[in-house]
Amino acid sequence: EGLKMNDQEVLVEIEETATDTHFLQLTLDIPEKPLFRDEDGGLVIPQEPLVSVLKKFDGVTFSDALNRSGVAQRKRYQLLKLPDYLILHLARFKDNRYTKEKNPSIVMFPVKNLDLGEYVHKEKQSLPTEEQIRGMTVRQ
């Protein structure tokens, strides 16, 4: 790929690496608070369903991040396996120069039937063991 800047072509090299990491919690990025106020002068507090916040882990959506050296990079996350217990952490606080700012956005969680199976990458799901297959057979 290349970019054209000032009649010179600059080649952009894209390096893609994959890392498997075990986890117990997922950090969910919630949308930024709105800059504008409503007609009464109050802030509009956005409401997002949990499904839209979980798009970060669909394996397709890119997230912008800084690595440890401070270099900007784009990351893509996909879940290979879910742990027995999962903690969902909402990244509400952002540091600015002087203080921490709290994002007041509301994330709506479903009360029942939260299925995270659709976020698990299908190719990496483990095959059943021989014992599991034998346990599935019906004997007469």
UniProtKB/TrEMBL annotation:
Q: What Pfam families does this protein map onto?
A: UCH (PF00443)
Which GO biological process categories is it annotated with?
Answer: protein deubiquitination
Describe the location of the Peptidase C19 ubiquitin carboxyl-terminal hydrolase domain by residue ranges: 68-129
Looking up InterPro entries in the UniProt record yields: Papain-like_cys_pep_sf, Peptidase_C19_UCH
**One function term, GO molecular function aspect:** cysteine-type deubiquitinase activity
Q: Which named protein is this?
A: Peptidase C19 ubiquitin carboxyl-terminal hydrolase domain-containing protein
Q: Which organism is it from?
A: Phaeodactylum tricornutum
